Every structure is written in structure tokens, then in C-alpha cells.
Amino acid sequence: MRHETQWKTLMGEGLWNYLYDNNRLLISKNYANQSLTENNIGVENYKIIVEHLKNN
């Protein structure tokens, strides 16, 4: 399941809204793409992930 609507259904509105409101979701217009790149998740989101991985 990759589509935003399918994930909302799986998680339920409460969890989805909590994660969304706290900026914990990566939502891409290219939802079928399984790779994370600057082009499909945006430069800022990509930098957040890279920095997190460097620190762990």
C-alpha cells in the first residue's frame, strides 16, 4: 500500500492526523515510487532524513 488514502484507512484518522500535524509523514506526489530522493520528497525532507541517518 503506497497511496495516501490507503494509508489513512489503515492507520485510522486519529493516528494519521496526529502524525500529519506533527510533521511525521512524508507525502510524495509520486506515491508509487519506492525510493526517497530530493526530487520526489523535496530537498528539505531529504535533508532531514539524511541528517537523522548520519546521527544514528
Structural description of this entry:
- With 56 residues, the protein is mainly alpha-helical.
- The protein is 59% helix and 0% strand.
- The protein contains four helices and no strands.
- The chain has helices at 4-11, 13-21, 38-41, 43-54.
- Helix 1 (4-11) crosses helix 2 (13-21).
- The longest helix has 12 residues, at 43-54.
- The termini are far apart.
- The mean pLDDT is 82.
Largest sheet: none
Low-confidence stretches: none
Q: What fraction of residues sit in β-strands?
A: under 5%
Alpha carbon gyration radius: 12 Å
| H/I helix tally | 4
- Strand tally is 0
Using the alpha-carbon principal axes, give the shape. globular
* Whole-number mean pLDDT: 82
| Helix content estimate | 55-70%
Order of helices and strands: HHHH
Q: Measure the end-to-end span.
A: 27 Å
Secondary structure category: mainly alpha
